[in-house]
Structure formats: C-alpha cells, structure tokens
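tokens incoming
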C-alpha cells in the first residue's frame, strides 16, 4: 500500500506538474497525493458523491488553477527519479518499524488474538464498517433506522480504514492498526524529513525526527497542577485519543513544506483549507486564520516579496460557503449530536464573572503549556540567539518570522473559539485539535534545527540529554497507556471464552446482537462503545451490538448527564421503537426485543457480570457461555 500510494501520487503529481526539485519533498508530496486520491475516490464511489470529501476535490481544482501549471500526459509522467529511491527505502524501514510496534501492541500473553484496547480508535473502525456498508456519512451508527442525511464530523480516518480494509479484504481493526497506522506515521515522518533536509544531513537528527508522530510536551500527570492538562498530550498517533488528528498532521506537514519553499507561501495557507473538510471542528478557527493571514499578506505582500492576489481572499469564504451549503442540503431531519450555538455562549461572555472565570481557565492552560513545552522552547531559542543577529531574527524576509506571525494569529483565534463554545460538545477541539499539530511540529523542528546549527560541546550535550529524555518519556507514556488499556478492557477475559464465542459468532449469517450492560460502567452513552464483547471488532467487520441498557434508560427517563440527554433519544433501539410507535405497533421495549429475536434481527446477547438476561429471551437460548474470569455471559439465540 505504501508503494501503491507513491506510484499513484507520482503519476498525479507529474500530470499536474507540481513536483518538487527536493527529492525528499517530492516523495512526501507523492505519498500525500497518492494516499488522499485513493481514499477520496473510494469515498466518492461508495457514497455516490454525497461525501464532504467532494469538497477536497473541488478545492484541489481551484488551487491547481491558482498555481497555473501546464497539465502533461506524455510518457515522462511514469518515469521514476532515482534520487527519490533513498527516501522511499528509508521510509520503508520506518514503515516496518511501526508495523512491528503495532504487532507488539496488539499482542497479549493470553492467546493468539488481537487486543482491542482503545475506545476512540475503535469508534473509527465501527464507523468505517458503517460507511462502507451504507454509504452514509453519519456519526449516528444506526443499522436499525438508517440516518436520513449527512452529519458534520471527521470521517477521513474511517474512509481510509474502509478503503484499505475493503481493498485488502482485512478485518478493519487490524487494517487500522497494521496498515493505516504505520502508513500514515511513515508519510508524516518523511514529510518531516523533507523539512529537516533544508538544515541538516546528520543521521541522528533524522532518527530523533522519527519521534514527530509521538511528540508532545512533557505532560506529567503526577504533578498536581498538570492533572487536567490531557489535551496537550494530543499528537499524530496517541494511545489516549487514538486516531483523532492523524490526518491533520499530514496537512500540517504539507503546510510547513510549502511555507519553507519561498515561492509557495500563499499556497501553504490555501492547503490548510483541507482541514475543515477533514474535520468540521477545525472549520471556525482555520477558516478565520487563513482569511486573516491572506488579508495581511494582501496588504503587505509586495513589501516582503510575496505574490498575493486579491481573489485569494475568496478561498476561505468559498470553503465556508461549501461546507454550509453541503450540510444544509444533505443534513438529516434530526441531528445525532447537537451543534454548538454561537448566540448563547456570546451572551454568557457578556457577564463579568464568567469572563473572569474564563480568563482564569485560559491563563491556567497558558501556564501549563509553558511548563510542558519549556525544555524544547528554551533550547530552540538558545540556538537562535547563538547563531543569528537580532536584525536577521526580526527581518521580515525570515520564513520563521512568517510562521511566528501565523502562530500569533492562530493561537488567539483558537482560544477565542474554544471559549465561545466552552461547555458545548467537543469544545476543547477548537483549541487543541487546531493548534497542537502546529505547535508540536514547529517545536520539534526548531529544536533539531537549533542542534544542527550549534557548534558547542555543551549545547550538543544539552540536545543529547533532551533527545534521550523525550524518547524515554514518549515510549514510557505510550506503553503505560497501552498496558493500562489492555488490563482494563482486555485482560479481563479468559482466552477460552474468547475462542469459544468467536467460534460461535463465526458460524452466524447475521451477526447483530444485543448487549445488556452495567449503567455505572458507561464512558459515553453510545452503542458503539463495547463495554462487553469488546474483543469482537478484532475478528469481524459485520458485528454490531445494540444496547438494551441505553434504551431502557431512555424509556425509564434516566438521564444522568447532558450527554445522556442528547444521545439516548438517538440510540438504535430507541429510534426503532419510535418507528414502531408511529406505525401503532409498539407495545414495550421487551416485546420489541423479543420480536427482533423472532424475526432474526438479533442472533446473540452479551450480559455484564452483574446483569441478567431478559426473561422473555430465555426460551430462545441455544447455548450459554460464561467467562470464569470476567463473569461476562454470552447467549447464542435460536428461533427454531
């Protein structure tokens, strides 16, 4: 898949004549274009064009028109450049390393089956199966009552899993972990190498650069003041947040490569407009930042030698209009997640007491960020002041100063939208998902560049200590989170139980089931969180369990939180019962579940250790399997 992405990208890049003279940048660009092209074409085919990814195609066309490069279809478009083979080979070595790493993370000491330990990553796998089977882009994974329209969310990760899993005929969980994870890690690292090649050719700088996919500041949860600084831990691939910002890093790395190519400063800003199309939570801050920066460059571009056209200001406006029109045209009759409103938060911000409390929150996060990132920032500044004069540092000809201008606009805008939507669903994403990829990439780059420029033994020793510390910290953090996840969500099962349940489900033609869970264990009020039978996604793409417990909570008016009040009315069993009620066929939840079993819609039931099977279903039980370790029960149902 790595070489296929390169070859597809090679052909497209040469057709549109956008290749780079720098061989490392050329390889990264081809991998980026090849990967995105395959996934987008797959999504367009499956969704019959009704996908937010269609906006990426339209935006790409406009950017290519802005570049004004001649299109070529001659035989030279297939000719490979020998100087790129070195980077492809080194990238292949990195790919194998991350493949081996994921194999280790998936392994366990209890059997020859994959560990499914991260609920956030698992959601993308479940959504990938839903996207591919239904062609509907919806955060509402509901096989009983299909969503009527398209909900805004970040789907590119799921489309990627669905594409490679379908192409390779693999289980989607294994596809995510063994194919997509290593591939995207490798492309990010090659893109970072392309940046670094402008300043250093030292091998150990490139070795440290491989940490870009894990790079964060030193988030020490043992320190009381940093207990709530988890948002700063978000990186390209995070054992805590899983897959959330992986593709954001790809676009951010492309932005950096274009920014540090003098003739591509404007285009570096325009490619950032892919981000709102990849994840809707990035739309408000990114669209605003790009518009403001293009406006500033329009005013001052001639003075600093940047070629900006007045119509470049239309790009962020057109993307905003496209997103608005797309979701207005295809939005569902009832949204699964309540979209954050602007009016009410702005009213709240008019209160002096609320403004004061929000200012304290922002100040706390600022201080935490300074503490967490200070070792890298201090070393980078030390390198700058040791090797440049004050005049050159603040010269507007400096590419770094242009980036600092970008960052100085980005961070306040990201903080502003975070505070406007504070308390809404996913509000922190406006800050962390938007800003951290830029901060993480730039700080690691600045640290390594500073090391490359310094020629002092003390400075080199400082860099070596910093590199060793960050390596130990990253590996320890990732390993600890992974092992904790295995213990909490996987090691609770006996291998005999997993093998027996897997064998029974593999014989079923319909693999939809019911789960009866302990309400006290819920992380989110969402059927896609597998609190029981959570090992199944490691084996089957077509399994899905409907939560009886969530439906029961809804019909008993049990709403323990705002999130529960928002999500429970959209639970699959609830919406199915509502449909029956509209047809005057609904009697009770238990009778509905019984009828579903009789009609073959449900083939098995999982129950938590302290939960009981419904009395109405006991007559359907063909086999009962009890896990002696977790006390979880599996019931195979039969209607004959």
């Amino acid at each position: 898949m790595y070489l296929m992405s390169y070859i597809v990208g090679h052909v497209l890049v040469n057709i549109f004549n956008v290749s780079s003279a720098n061989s490392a940048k050329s390889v990264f660009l081809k991998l980026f274009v090849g990967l995105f092209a395959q996934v987008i074409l797959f999504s367009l085919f499956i969704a019959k064009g009704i996908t937010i990814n269609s906006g990426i195609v339209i935006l790409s066309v406009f950017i290519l028109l802005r570049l004004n490069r001649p299109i070529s279809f001659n035989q030279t478009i297939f000719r490979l450049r020998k100087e790129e083979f070195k980077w492809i080979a080194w990238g292949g070595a990195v790919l194998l390393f991350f493949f081996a790493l994921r194999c280790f993370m998936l392994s366990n000491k209890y059997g020859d089956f994959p560990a499914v330990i991260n609920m956030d990553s698992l959601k993308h796998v479940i959504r990938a199966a839903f996207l591919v089977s239904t062609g509907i882009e919806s955060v509402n994974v509901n096989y009983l009552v299909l969503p009527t329209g398209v909900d805004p969310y970040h789907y590119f990760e799921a489309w990627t899993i669905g594409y490679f899993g379908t192409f390779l005929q693999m289980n989607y969980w294994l596809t995510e972990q063994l194919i997509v994870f290593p591939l995207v890690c490798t492309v990010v690292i090659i893109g970072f190498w392309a940046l670094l090649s402008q300043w250093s050719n030292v091998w150990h700088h490139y070795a440290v650069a491989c940490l870009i996919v894990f790079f964060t500041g030193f988030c020490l949860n043992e320190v009381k003041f940093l207990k709530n600084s988890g948002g700063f831990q978000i990186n390209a691939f995070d054992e805590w947040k899983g897959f959330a910002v992986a593709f954001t890093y790809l676009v951010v790395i492309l932005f950096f490569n274009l920014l540090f190519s003098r003739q591509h400063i404007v285009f570096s800003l325009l490619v950032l407009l892919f981000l709102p199309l990849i994840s809707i939570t990035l739309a408000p801050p990114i669209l605003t930042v790009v518009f403001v920066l293009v406006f500033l460059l329009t005013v001052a571009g001639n003075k600093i030698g940047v070629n900006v056209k007045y119509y470049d200001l239309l790009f962020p406006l057109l993307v905003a209009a496209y997103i608005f029109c797309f979701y207005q045209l295809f939005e569902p009759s009832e949204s699964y997640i309540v979209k954050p409103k602007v009016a009410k938060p702005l009213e709240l911000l008019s209160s002096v007491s609320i403004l004061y409390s929000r200012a304290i929150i922002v100040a706390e996060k600022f201080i935490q960020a300074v503490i967490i990132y200070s070792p890298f920032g201090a070393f980078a500044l030390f390198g700058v002041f040791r090797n440049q004069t004050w005049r050159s540092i603040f010269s507007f000809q400096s590419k770094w100063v242009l980036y600092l201008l970008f960052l100085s606009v980005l961070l306040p805008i990201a903080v502003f939208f975070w505070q406007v939507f504070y308390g809404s669903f996913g509000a922190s994403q406006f800050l962390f998902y938007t800003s951290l990829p830029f901060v993480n990439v730039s700080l690691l780059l600045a640290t390594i560049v500073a090391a490359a420029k310094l020629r002092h033994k003390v400075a080199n020793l400082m860099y070596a200590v910093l590199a060793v510390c960050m390596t130990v910290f990253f590996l320890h953090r990732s390993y600890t989170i992974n092992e904790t996840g295995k213990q909490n969500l996987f090691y609770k099962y006996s291998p005999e139980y997993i093998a027996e349940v897997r064998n029974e489900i593999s014989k079923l033609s319909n693999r939809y089931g019911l789960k009866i869970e302990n309400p006290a264990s819920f992380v989110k009020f969402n059927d896609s969180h597998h609190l029981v039978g959570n090992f199944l996604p490691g084996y089957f793409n077509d399994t899905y369990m409907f939560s009886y417990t969530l439906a029961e909570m809804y019909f008993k008016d049990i709403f323990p939180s705002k999130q529960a009040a928002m999500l429970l009315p959209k639970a699959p069993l609830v919406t199915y019962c509502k449909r029956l009620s509209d047809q005057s066929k609904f009697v009770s939840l238990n009778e509905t579940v019984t009828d579903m079993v009789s009609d073959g819609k449900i083939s098995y039931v999982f129950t938590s250790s302290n939960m009981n099977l419904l009395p109405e279903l006991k007559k359907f039980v063909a086999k009962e399997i009890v896990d002696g370790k977790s006390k979880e029960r599996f019931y195979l149902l039969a209607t004959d």
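note: The first strand starts at residue 512 and ends at 516.
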